[in-house]
Specification:
Order of helices and strands: HHEEHEHEHEEEHE
Distance between the termini: 40 Å
Radius of gyration: 17 Å
Largest sheet: 8 strands, mixed
Strand content: 15-25%
Shape: globular
Helix content: 25-40%
Number of strands: 8
Strand order of the largest sheet: 1-3-2-4-5-6-7-8
CATH architecture: 3-Layer(aba) Sandwich
Structural class: alpha/beta
Number of helices: 6
């Protein structure tokens, strides 16, 4: 059964703002992965949060204009509330079935990808949906991308990543990668093959609610297969 648990962290505000930037930069450099993992292990997780969790939608609506469940994956030290404004935007346009995937702060993105896969299977079992869509911010996008790269048969119809570090040179066919031109944490790669969008005057956190980003996400998730053909463009 899907469930919901509130998450809190006993970290000072300065750490909450600085650590995500440091972690994202560390992930962007694969050789620093082990060092960053050791650093993060120094910060305790919230009591009672030892595993990844999924939160259920109040009521799955198979008759919604866009019935495919959307799994939201937050970034490092993030929480499901960060998607609030994007959720409202999408809900007003017929996307009403949302599920959030939450996890304790860690950098082991391959393990998080395996946990995300299990969460997606749980969502499918609970709703009867054959596939899901995924939206991931920052580390959450890297986790979702790694799942598709290592498990191409994963039941993901479409995936949107927002400011996610790119450790390779190409994107999965199911992915739309959106970057902010003013993002000082994760810069848009200049030689990345796949479907990408660069949003002017948009920073790392603003990717979660920038109007252009919201429109792009809604258009991509609602587009037909032909309309969602790979592209590279500036917003």
């Amino acid at each position: 059964m899907l469930f919901e648990t509130a998450m809190t962290f006993a970290l000072p505000i300065a750490a909450r703002t600085l650590l995500p930037a440091l972690i994202a930069r560390g992930l962007a450099n694969g050789s620093l992965h082990a060092a960053w993992s050791r650093l993060v292990s120094l910060f305790p997780a919230a009591p009672g949060r030892r595993h990844a969790e999924v939160t259920s939608v109040a009521e799955f609506d198979p008759a919604a204009p866009y019935p495919t469940p959307i799994v939201l994956v937050h970034g490092f030290l993030g929480d499901p509330g960060h998607f609030r404004r994007l959720r409202r935007f999408l809900a007003a346009r017929g996307f009403r079935n949302f599920v959030t995937f939450s996890y304790e702060p860690r950098l082991d993105y391959p393990e998080l990808a395996r946990q995300l896969h299990r969460a997606i299977d749980a969502v499918r079992d609970a709703t009867g949906a054959p596939v899901v869509d995924v939206i991931g911010h920052s580390l959450g996008g890297l986790v979702a991308r790694h799942l598709l790269e290592t498990t191409p048969e994963a039941p993901i119809r479409r995936m949107v990543t927002l400011g996610a570090p790119c450790l390779g040179r190409s994107l999965p066919a199911e992915e739309l990668a959106i970057f902010g031109a003013a993002d000082v944490i994760i810069a848009a790669p200049t030689r990345l093959r796949g479907r990408t969008v660069l949003v002017p005057a948009c920073g790392h956190l603003r990717l979660l609610h920038h109007p252009t980003v919201c429109r792009r996400v809604a258009t991509f998730l609602g587009a037909s297969a032909r309309e969602a053909a790979p592209m590279r463009e500036a917003a």
